[in-house]
Amino acid sequence: MHEDINKDVCTFIMPLFTCMKISVATKFTIFSFAVLCMGSTAIFSYKPTPVKFLGPKGWPEAAYNFNGNPLTKEGIALGKKLFYDPVLSSDNTVSCATCHEPSAAFATYDHPLSHGVNNLTTRNAPSLFNSAWQKEFMFDGRAASLEEQALLPMHSTDEMDTNIPALLKQLSASPSYKKMFSAAFGPSKITLDQITRALSQFQLTLVSANSKYDQVMRGEASFILPEKLGYEIFETKCVSCHTPPLFSNYSYQNTAITRDPILKDNGRARFTGNSSDSLKFKVPSLRNVALTFPYGHDGRYYSILDVLTHYKTSGQIPLSNYEIGQLTAFLNTLTDSSTLSNPAFLPRQAATNNKIPNHAHQ
Questions:
Q1: If we measure between CA atoms, which residue out of 98, 117, 116, 118 comes closest to residue 108?
Q2: What is the C-alpha to C-alpha distance for residues 134 and 152, in angstroms, rounded to an integer?
């Protein structure tokens, strides 16, 4: 549209330049004004499509400050492209999705430690679902915002080890990226702030709220007996930390896990410097837990049985073998298959509208 406006401006001023009665100073003023108009039309035509964040019915209010980074269709699309693009890493081999794999509910799948540009990192990446309700990120909470959460692996030498100047230069040289950044944030120089804001916008759309558990809570399905019994045990012995509907209270807990002699990870204490935070890690959400193995900050537990056995043998939670079986049946009801197959979340797919899917049938 702004190309047509520029053409009209040129059509209007050209006859004035051929008029001999207008002084050179006046012509210069007219020329300057025309340049200003043509340069500003691109700004005036920048109109990203707002996207309304639809939290599931009955859930608490999201913690994320959307006023500071309003969701737009263009910003989400850009964030999604960046999320799956290894261009963010120093050697173009590691993307966000390398550690946060869609098939594993956007967590690290199969191997204990996430893989970065220098092979292994020191932790297992947690799921990114329902990030809008978190105030702090990483297992030790050292990231105070979703944007900072994106920056930390980019600056980490064993994760993405991003060369920021080289990245900005490469993105600026890409016609497709230039177009997407302009659509999302206006015609301006591509910045690191825009990159992290776009990544946040995409991650904020990753809402999981349509598991069998959710369907039961909405009266659309029923637990079978083992699931029902497991739910009752969960309500008695697990709910204080893994609080529904998010299935985490996002506190930091020492669950009697021993320190790995090689990794020497002291948990939150490494960030806060407080000895009382030693070996405390953020309580992970149990949503889609059947898919996010192995478990723990360092992936030392390969199955749900291993985790529950640890709680039993360490004395953290008194559990019988029978209760472990019923609890496992219930935890499997937290798998949200429809969200995991949502094309809006997967690579080479695009959202078809300007509203985030609300799987809670608000």
A1: 98
A2: 17
Q: Which long-range contacts (CB under 8 A, 24 or more apart) does 310-316 make?
A: 310/255, 310/256, 310/257, 311/255, 314/255, 314/256, 315/256, 316/255, 316/256
Q: Tokens in use for 70?
A: 């309003």
pLDDT above 90 as % of the chain:
81
- Together in a domain, 89 and 103: yes
Decide: 199 and 78 in contact? Cβ < 8 Å. no
Q: Write the single-letter amino acid at 143.
A: A
In a domain, 132, yes or no: yes
Alpha carbons 129 and 126: distance in angstroms, whole number: 9
The stretches of the chain forming alpha helices (DSSP H) are: 2-18, 24-44, 73-83, 96-99, 146-155, 164-172, 175-185, 192-204, 212-217, 225-237, 269-272, 304-314, 321-331, 337-340
CA 198/CA 192 separation, integer angstroms: 10
Task: Show the domain range for 25.
Answer: 2-44
**Residue 156, burial from CB neighbour count under 10 angstroms (0-12, 13-18, 19+):** middle
Neighbouring residues of 3: CB distance < 8 A, sequence distance ≥ 6 = none
Question: Which CA distances in Å does 271 have to 13, 141, 262, 283, 297?
Answer: 63, 8, 19, 16, 15
Task: Say whether both 202 and 216 belong to one domain.
Answer: no
How many alpha carbons lie under 13 Å from residue 37 in its C-beta half-sphere? 16
As given in the structure block, the two tokens for residue 41 are 């039309």
User: For the chain, how many structural domains are there in total?
Assistant: 3
Indicate the residue type of 296. Answer: G
358: its two tokens: 């609300």
Give the tens place of pLDDT for each residue, 91-138: 999 999 999 999 999 999 888 999 999 887 999 999 999 999 999 999
Q: What is this structure's pTM?
A: 0.85
